[in-house]
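Slide 14.
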Amino acid sequence: MKLLVERTQMKYRKIRERGNYSITDIESTLKILAWEGFVWTLKDMPDLTRSESILIDYYLTIYRENQVYEISF
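Slide 15: predicted structure.
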């Protein structure tokens, strides 16, 4: 599970940097991660901005049923 969290966070950081920290790009990425069930993995990232934290909380609320907390390999 820890590997999944690290990979998702690394992927998100790359997308965020590639999009030049555009809030619209960040929002669409967070929405996709929420729909796929992995937005919760970003919740405790130390380098999140306040707006990112707000969007993560919002999408966690909206897509709560999609979140995947247990994965069997």
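Speaker note: Residues 2-18 form the longest helix (17 residues).
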